[in-house]
Amino acid sequence: MNEERIPRATAKRLPLYYRHLNLLYNQGKIRISSKELSESIKVDSATIRKDFSYFGELGRKGYGYDIAHLLQFFRNLLDQDEVASVALVGVGNLGTALLHYNFMKKGNTQIEIAFDTNREKVGEKIGDVPVYHVDDLEKELKRKEIKVVILTVPARAAQEVTSQLVENGVEGILNFTPSRLSVPSHVRVHHIDLSIELQTLIYFLKHN
Ligand code: ATP
């Protein structure tokens, strides 16, 4: 399999498939047709078949998909046996909410450490996650071998913090700030702008 060829849209659906298959497996289900899978995860069955086709023959005609087999396949593909350590920078309202959110329950990621400039927040534990001062960023990121960071600082601080993160080996940033970040080509940024998502939803409601 050539993972380079997998379209971004397909790659983004893989955790969804994994999570759902896990649920079905835990319910004791043994196999599922692409039609059933489609109805339960609300992705049309042609898309599911196309997505799965990038990985070779995962199912059999007339039988459907063997859930345990599929689950193991996606687990390997997504490295689900390995827990990915994540850091969060900016323990404001949104950052705090994310620290309380139990990522581990829904996937294999865990926020291990948080950073902030506010001395009143430093030294606290929020949802079991210790908050450090950004001055310790370099030392702690290296010590914990963190490659992925959730960014929830104010927009004005986003680029400066990003440059610091990149200098310290971070390769993936989940950017919740409205800023567009400049990063070198080996660094991947996924942007989640909640205000834009909400505005877009409202726009579509008004215009359809
Ligand atoms: P709050 O009400 O707690 O300030 P907020 O989400 O409205 O929350 P923001 O101004 O967006 O606050 O800041 C988010 C957090 O980012 C704050 O805790 C702030 O101390 C922190 N912060 C600001 N600048 C930096 C920086 N350069 N590095 C790390 N954290 C920062």
UniProtKB/TrEMBL annotation:
GO terms for biological process: negative regulation of DNA-templated transcription; response to redox state. Gene3D superfamilies: NAD(P)-binding Rossmann-like Domain, Winged helix-like DNA-binding domain superfamily/Winged helix DNA-binding domain. It comes from the Bacteria. GO terms for molecular function: DNA binding; DNA-binding transcription factor activity. Residues 16-55 bind DNA. Residues 79-180 form the CoA-binding domain. Keywords: Cytoplasm, DNA-binding, NAD, Repressor, Transcription, Transcription regulation. Belongs to the transcriptional regulatory Rex family. This is Redox-sensing transcriptional repressor Rex. It comes from Tenuibacillus multivorans. The gene is rex.
